[in-house]
From TrEMBL:
It comes from Roseicyclus mahoneyensis. Pfam families: HTH_3. InterPro entries: Cro/C1-type_HTH, Lambda_DNA-bd_dom_sf, TransReg_Diox_bact_type. The keyword DNA-binding applies. One of its GO terms (cellular component) is cytosol. This is DNA-binding XRE family transcriptional regulator. Residues 58-112 form the HTH cro/C1-type domain.
């Protein structure tokens, strides 16, 4: 059965705006819950801007974590020269190497591929 209701345009616009506000609040609540659960993290603007400017994601996340190339290489089980070559763009790194580096930085592989 198709029931229809006719309401003034002003009321329709008010209801639509309220629905959009509710959707925004629900998105905010999900984001805050993910932060509280540790599933997401906030990245300071200076680091986000470096990523947006095209700097090596490996270098940016390494700096964010306060690690040297040598420390990161040791934690990931790769050679320090490999870290340097990936950061400078001389090499791309294998999937296995990038996965190990991502794990050592506690980021996703996608974060390093940006």
């Amino acid at each position: 059965m198709n029931e229809m209701v006719t309401i003034p345009r002003e009321e329709y616009d008010r209801l639509r705006a309220a629905a959009e506000d509710l959707a925004d609040l629900q998105s905010y609540d999900r984001a805050m819950a993910a932060l509280a659960a540790g599933a997401e993290e906030l990245i300071p603007a200076v680091y986000a801007n470096r990523l947006l400017d095209g700097e090596s994601p490996l270098r940016v996340y390494r700096d964010l974590r306060g690690l040297t190339q040598a420390t990161l290489a040791e934690r990931a089980g790769v050679n320090r020269v490999t870290v340097a070559e990936i950061e400078t763009g001389r090499k791309q790194g294998s999937v296995a190497t990038l996965r190990a580096l991502a794990g050592a930085l506690d980021v996703t592989l996608d974060d390093l591929m940006a």
